[in-house]
């Protein structure tokens, strides 16, 4: 391909990516650039029909909050084939913004892995499942495969990343839960909403892992597919055998104090513990319905039941890889600052070589 044509193609795609990440329409971007650029001109830039001059290029970068060299960085990641978990009211323009932000984050992630030689292989076994019961069995198989035993998982994101899954957190509207898929057709990817409380992030990450690991026949209804992945996440976080050992095989009443103790130990919400107790016959449907009714009727009880009590967790792997590459002199301080989206001064203060 002609070098100028290749540069034009990269620019047109990067401009559209930056616009979508910013959540701008063509009209909004045209109004945000100083000096003004017409909507029609921006549309032509994005279609590769013409290139801006240096003055316009600087103006576009300023309006979109990116560096000029961003527009000419080759694409290395495709995330077109991912599945969103979102509310119906989450608009497509916001889904497009999420997709492009994920692409950007994953490109940086893979670049740093390559720089420091820290790539990890994904080898968790896939399985065909049709039922929630089969999903629960596979959850225990995966726990055993990872050597987790029956203990609580201290950091779900770290466990996934250490085993080849790329996990990205983005702060997004509450109508977005997460997404998963295979970037470039082979790189396992999970995205979770960083705005959620710890218990929900952990559950969502494992729900999405279920989507990555399961081959579910097409005739299984979509609602049951989601239930299958919920059961997988619940069993992974808190095996039913462990839950029953703590509360008993059957209970008429159960105290919130018991549930919150389990919540702290296993990093799973009270709501999800109650759902597991109901699904596995420890409490009756009437008792479970009574719990939901009490929450709806008593705001103070609802607040207590839904309170997050798990220790906040996030992955430090990306930052560790950046600082490793910096310590090995594989990258400069300015490159590290770009990767970490911070200042050079902050990077220098955190490096602290020993």
UniProtKB/TrEMBL annotation:
Name listed for the protein in its UniProt record: Helix-turn-helix domain-containing protein
What InterPro entries does the record tag this protein with? Cro/C1-type_HTH, IrrE_HExxH, Lambda_DNA-bd_dom_sf, Rad_response_metalloprotease
Q: Which CDD domains match?
A: HTH_XRE (cd00093)
Signal sequence, start to end:
none
Tell me where in this chain the HTH cro/C1-type domain is found: 15-71
Family classification: Belongs to the short-chain fatty acyl-CoA assimilation regulator (ScfR) family.
| Any one GO molecular-function label of the UniProt entry | DNA binding
Q: Which Pfam families match?
A: HTH_3 (PF01381), Peptidase_M78 (PF06114)
């Amino acid at each position: 391909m002609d070098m100028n044509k290749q540069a034009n193609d990269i620019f047109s795609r990067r401009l559209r990516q930056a616009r979508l990440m910013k959540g701008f329409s063509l009209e909004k971007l045209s109004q945000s650039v100083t000096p003004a650029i017409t909507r029609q001109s921006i549309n032509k830039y994005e279609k590769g029909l013409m290139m801006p001059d240096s003055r316009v290029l600087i103006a576009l970068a300023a309006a979109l909050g990116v560096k000029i060299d961003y527009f000419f960085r080759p694409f290395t990641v495709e995330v077109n084939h991912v599945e969103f978990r979102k509310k119906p009211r989450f608009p497509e323009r916001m889904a497009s913004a999420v997709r492009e932000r994920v692409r950007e984050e994953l490109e940086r992630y893979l670049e740093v892995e390559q720089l420091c030689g820290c790539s990890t292989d994904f080898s968790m076994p896939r399985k065909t499942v049709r039922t929630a019961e089969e999903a629960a069995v596979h959850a225990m198989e995966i726990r055993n495969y990872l050597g987790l035993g029956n203990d609580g998982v201290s950091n779900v994101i770290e466990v996934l990343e250490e085993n080849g899954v790329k996990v990205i957190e983005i702060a997004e509207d509450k109508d977005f839960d997460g997404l998963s898929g295979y970037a470039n057709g082979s790189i396992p990817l999970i995205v979770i909403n960083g705005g959620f409380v710890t218990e929900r992030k952990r559950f969502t990450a494992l729900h999405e892992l279920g989507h990555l690991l399961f081959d579910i026949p097409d005739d299984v209804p979509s609602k049951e597919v989601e239930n299958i992945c919920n059961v997988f996440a619940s069993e992974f976080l808190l095996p039913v055998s462990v839950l029953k050992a703590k509360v008993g095989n059957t209970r008429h009443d159960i105290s919130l104090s018991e549930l919150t103790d389990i919540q702290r130990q296993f990093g799973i919400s009270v709501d999800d513990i109650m759902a597991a107790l109901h699904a596995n016959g420890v409490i009756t449907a009437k008792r479970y319905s009574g719990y939901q009714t009490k929450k709806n009727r008593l705001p103070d009880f609802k607040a207590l039941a839904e309170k997050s009590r798990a220790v906040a967790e996030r992955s430090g792997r990306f930052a560790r890889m950046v600082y490793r590459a910096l310590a090995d002199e594989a990258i400069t301080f300015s490159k590290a600052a770009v990767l970490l989206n911070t200042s050079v001064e902050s990077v220098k203060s955190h490096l602290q070589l020993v």
